[in-house]
Amino acid sequence: MMQLPSIGKPATNALKSNGYTTLEQVRTLDKATLLKMHGVGPKAITILEKALAEHNWTFQDSSLNKTMLESDFEVICSLNCDNAPKRRLIRDYLIALASGNQQFINSILADSFRLIIPGRNTLNGKEMFIRTILKEQKEIRTLHIQSILTHGKEGSTHGIITTKTGNIIYFSAIIRFVSNQKEAPISEVTAFMIQ
User: Which helix (H) or strand (E) holds 147?
Assistant: First the structure.
């Protein structure tokens, strides 16, 4: 693993607080995402770009993130090999969930959708889920999706949410789709959260 170059304390702290501690991790980001991090400026990006070039690496192409839903908070996510529709769907589901985009959530969930949160009640049905989630909506500063994996009709993801009040929520979810088809709706999510 390659250490981060000397980019200044504010930029280093911004990267580390978002889980980026190595040059290999930084190369999964695009410049626009980096510039959204408080403390990372053009000078730090130039230094990082030079360090990446020494290993024949570059930042991620920012056009890969163009399909993401609009949000009023920072979204940090890499979709290396952006050729998996279910990975995009999980990413966009998380963004829609965090931003309260009821219309998008409604469009990607099966009517018989179930949310399972171990230790709490299971929410059965898409309508019940949407009503409950909108009631529990938090104002978010950053949604950092650290990984998304998919295979067949299953997927998983984990990451970190930072609220506008500074609270940090670690999340992980196991996702099941109705079928193996590319655009299959989500039928079940088992979610784990640590605050």
Answer: strand 140-151
The closest alpha carbon to 97, from 65, 129, 127, 64, belongs to 129
Burial 33-42 (b: 16+ CB within 10 A, else e): bbeebeebbe
Q: 116-160 pLDDT, tens per residue?
A: 999 888 999 999 998 888 888 888 999 999 999 999 999 999 999
Q: Are residues 89 and 143 in the same domain?
A: yes
Averaging pLDDT over each range in 6-15, 64-73, 94-103, 149-158, which range is the top one?
149-158
Could you report the per-residue pLDDT of 171-186, keeping only the tens digit for each?
A: 999 999 999 888 789 9
Domain of 21?
A: 9-62
Q: Would residue 149 count as lying in a domain?
A: yes
* 91 and 53, same domain (yes or no): no
Are both 153 and 185 inside the same structural domain? yes
Query: Does residue 49 sit in the same domain as residue 126?
Result: no
Q: Which residues contact 99 (CB under 8 A, 6 or more apart)?
A: 69, 70, 71, 72, 73, 140
SS3 content of the chain, % helix, strand, coil (to 5): 35, 30, 35
Mean pLDDT of the chain: 86
How many whole angstroms separate alpha carbon 98 and alpha carbon 82? 22
d(CA 102, CA 134): 8
